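Dear Dr. H.,

I hope your travels went smoothly. While you were away I took the liberty of generating a structure for the chain from your last submission, since the lab meeting agenda had it listed for discussion. I wanted you to have the full record in hand beforehand rather than looking at slides cold. The sequence, exactly as received, is reproduced here:
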Amino acid sequence: MRWENLTADPAGGPARDAALFGADAVTTRTFDTPEFRGITFHEVRARSIVNRVPGASRMPFEWTVNPYRGCSHACVYCFARKTHSYLDLDTGLGFDSQIVVKVNAPELLRRQLASRRWHGEHIAMGTNVDCYQRAEGRYRLMPGIIAALRDHANPFSILTKGTLILRDLDLLKQASEVTDVGISVSVGFTDTELWRTVEPGTPAPERRLDVVRTLTDHGIGCGVLMAPVIPFLGDHPAQLRATVQAVAASGATSVTPLVLHLRPGAREWFMAWLEHHHPYLVRRYERLYAEGAYAPKWYQRRITRQVHELAQEYGIGPARAGMPRRITLPEPAAAPTPAAPTPTAPGPTQLTLL
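The corresponding predicted structure, in token form, is as follows:
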């Protein structure tokens, strides 16, 4: 296993001379409890936690924070599987059971947010692996991360399949009072049989929609990323309708469909799963994804159109890009007005911050 090859500078950009963490900083643990049985945790002290998204990425954000590598959700399609190979870890079962935990993530983030080099850009979380996977129940990294973002009024967003996010509801409410907070829950389908086979480590779709309902009930708008829509298994019109209807009933502010994409690392694992569970679909997938990781544009447009039409029917719409809220400073207490014998025309007033 190699740990030294991943590098980043303190602001999240690449650097050639600073390892993300060294081998001497790794502690390996296992816990003999039902929820963690078969899972190995590699605790590391990271040297950087704010990561710049590669310029060629399709992502609509520039900076991310990922306190974990690997994910016990064990989604067979997870595009992040390839990242495990950077550490010489297996991208199949190893990705599901060998979890890297950046135990100093909250303190490191707080230090980086205070740096003069940091200018308060939006930070996205849950974009690589889920920051509310089961490990978070033990390591509790997210409360410190959210508190740091709140204290620096730094805009952020979270994408999750985990119900554990409700543990941090009070912190999220506090953060939303001073900066822009975007929460999205991933629910690609409500088909129970499909969920059990492709997302075996995640909470059930209806439990995730309960999260949406709870967040919206507490004044925190929550959208649903309808991802992935899985060709030939989760894209039947009746399935799409059932999912959008359930999303609408949860009170979601938006629903945004995303068709399954199969990047290297994920593609091999998913196709092996498909061969085992649905061998009759293998050739159809080979044809559909013959040009690369993404389904053809015509297929993506068809799914998007169907979901948006259903969303309109049920009274919700696609996600809209939001602007971070500006922090409003409290107005200073009015100073006593000295008595004046004669009123005069008002002159310019210099406002103060304190």
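Two observations you may find useful: The first helix runs from residue 93 to 97. The longest strand covers residues 222-229.

With kind regards,
E. W.
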